[in-house]
Fold this sequence. Notes:
This is Proline dehydrogenase. It comes from Streptomyces niveus (Streptomyces spheroides). This protein has four helices and no strands. The chain is mainly alpha-helical. It has one domain (41-168): Up-down Bundle (A middle domain of Talin 1), CATH 1.20.1420. Helix 1 runs antiparallel to helix 2, helix 1 packs antiparallel against helix 4 (139-168) and helix 3 packs antiparallel against helix 4. The model has no long low-confidence stretch (mean pLDDT 86).
Amino acid sequence: MDAGIAALLGAGIGSVATLGATILSGRAQARAQHEQWRRQHRRDAYAGYLSALHDRDIAMDSILDALRQSESELSNVDENVQRFVTLAREVHRRAEVVILEGPHTLAEAAGRITHASEELSQVMRRMVEDARTSQVSRQAQDRALAAERERDLYQTIKDFRLTARTVLGNTD
């Protein structure tokens, strides 16, 4: 084989190797960009959900604070309940996005928050109804139960945050 053919053959092999490396590098870069895009969408979904939970929980605290007063003004309680209901709907809407974005562990964590929220909401509804009817016989019991359920809810939210951080790769 003469030197010219060997040089052409070497150049051809080099070109094919360079092309292969470029293709592999491009795929790796595209995969990394897709993962970053996916992580950002998940982060936005989780942050939006946590923000909606925060707003709803402030409204919930307003209801509980009003009910803890010795003489609750029912109009104030009713306004707070309406605000709470509106914000709870936003939480449910945001939870759907979390479920859609996944992964399954975050959907389960959001489900636990929903369950804990429902547990607390049941007590709150009874407390509001009792305030409307001036029923005071179970007031102390319901206040203690509401405080317990509130702690449970906040713990499930903390668990969600931790799981979200892990999913997003923020384990430090």
